[in-house]
Design brief:
- With 421 residues, the protein is of the alpha+beta class.
- The chain has 3 domains: 169 residues, Alpha-Beta Plaits (2-Layer Sandwich), CATH 3.30.70.270; 57 residues, 5' to 3' exonuclease, C-terminal subdomain (DNA polymerase, domain 1, Orthogonal Bundle), CATH 1.10.150; 157 residues, 2-Layer Sandwich (Dna Ligase, domain 1).
- The chain is built from 16 helices and 12 strands.
- Helix 11 packs across helix 12 and helix 13 packs antiparallel against helix 14.
- It starts with 8 loop residues before the first strand and ends in a 43-residue tail after the last helix.
Length: 421
């Protein structure tokens, strides 16, 4: 029996992706500190900043006023999803020239399993250099590539020498590489888990690998075993191909208002707009849901959330809206105020779409299908409900769950509903 061949995985990470795309399309922005955000005139946050802005301390997630304070000369650019999607699709086609096994981790990151491609393209270092060269020549952007035997290690390697970096983390170098690496650098160990590990005196991967695995399991359950393996760089996870039938657990959207509102009618308009976006995404993938979840953030940054389960599965904006509204109306918006509002639908089923035998239901389905067709062709909110006619359209920002197989031209997603930690 032949020994199992060691895998070779690349992690390709585009450098300051959104900002780089904007600088490439507009030469006047090159070499200048720029920030990509939702709404330059509103209370948006930094989605991506150019390296020129990062030199001034501008970071992803900052409020715009913080970015302006850190870098007074920063240029604010509104996010252009179609432009970034078009570029990402070009990148995806380049990756597939070297291997069919490509996992799109996000719009600017991908894993490539190049195991067994040596006879076609050379050793892993040569493959990585060819990919970087092709991206530079055909797309005009730079990327950083990490090479390793696992996805976890390849992602860590791609962060070395950014931007325009290239690093091959060979197995024999892994223990020394991980020894003093902060646990917060590991993909999958977030701030909350880092906090709890720090309380145990664990700050580095070396310390985590030496910590008794039995104690980790007692405190964190199965996650504790996974943490021990991660600290050793062990990861058997395969590079996953995008699948149309992958399980979707929820569909949601949220929006931070341009300014706090204490007006219930204003809150209702934002709620209806969000419900319309959620319902359109459900219908696009032939999903229906029964549980509507409402998330509210007040001006003092305190949160409120409630859910309501309805009798039948639905993909109708108005039914989702009525369920969410029944929760919203129990909140004293006039006194508490509203900063952020989000709606998601869970408890999903797929493939239940069929024309109703009842005339009223039949007409509703025909109407929604007609609205979807118009908006798919001409852009989001081209055709919408009357009460939204005089409201500014929500700023379109790509969902973190974007995949090449899920993109439809002219359909712009807002940010996915935030997961609470």
């Amino acid at each position: 029996m032949e020994p199992k061949k060691e895998r070779t995985i690349l992690h390709v990470d585009m450098d300051a992706y959104f900002a780089s795309v904007e600088q490439k399309s507009n030469p006047l922005l090159r070499g200048k500190p720029i920030v990509i955000c939702g709404n330059p005139e509103g209370r948006s946050v930094v989605s991506t900043s150019s390296y020129e802005a990062r030199a001034w301390g501008v970071k992803t997630g900052m409020m715009l006023w913080q970015a302006k304070k850190a870098c007074p000369q920063v240029i604010l650019i509104q996010c252009d999803p179609d432009k970034y999607v078009e570029t990402s699709l070009k990148l995806h086609r380049i990756y597939q020239e070297f291997t069919p096994v490509v996992e799109v981790f996000s719009i600017d990151e991908s894993f490539l399993d190049i195991t067994g491609t040596e006879r076609l393209f050379g050793n892993p270092l040569q493959v990585a250099k060819r990919i970087k060269k092709k991206i530079k020549e055909e797309v005009g952007l730079t990327c950083s590539v990490g090479i390793a035997s696992t996805k976890l290690l390849a992602k860590l390697a791609s962060d070395i020498n950014k931007p325009d970096g290239l690093f091959w983390l060979k197995d024999e170098k892994v223990p020394g590489f991980l020894k003093d690496l902060s646990i917060s650098e590991i993909c999958g160990i977030g701030p909350r888990l880092t906090f709890h590990l720090n309380k145990l005196g664990i700050h580095t991967c070396g310390e985590l690998s030496r910590y008794p695995v039995e104690l980790l399991e007692n405190k964190f359950g199965k996650v504790g075993i996974a943490l021990h393996r991660m600290a050793l760089g062990l990861d058997e996870g395969p590079v996953l191909l995008a699948r149309e039938d992958e399980k979707v657990k929820s569909v949601g959207h949220s929006i931070t208002l341009p300014e706090d509102t204490y007006n219930l009618e204003t809150a209702k308009k934002y709620l209806l707009s969000l419900c319309e976006q959620v319902a359109r995404r459900l219908r696009r993938k032939y999903y229906k849901g029964k549980t509507v979840f409402l998330f509210i953030r007040f001006p003092d940054f305190s949160d409120f959330s409630r859910q309501k389960t309805i009798i039948k599965f639905t993909d109708d904006d108005r039914e989702i809206y009525q369920s969410a509204l029944s929760i919203l109306e129990k909140i004293n918006i006039e006194s508490l105020g509203l900063r952020l509002i989000g709606v998601s639908v869970t408890n999903l089923v797929k493939g239940t779409d069929q024309l109703s035998l009842f005339p009223d239901e039949w007409r509703k389905q025909i109407l929604l299908a007609a609205m979807d067709k118009v908006n798919d062709r001409y852009g989001e909110f081209t055709l919408t409900w009357g009460r939204l006619m005089y409201q500014a359209k929500p700023v379109s920002i790509l969902t973190p769950a974007w995949r090449p197989d899920k993109h439809v031209k002219k359909f712009k997603f807002a940010l996915d509903f935030p997961q609470r930690s």
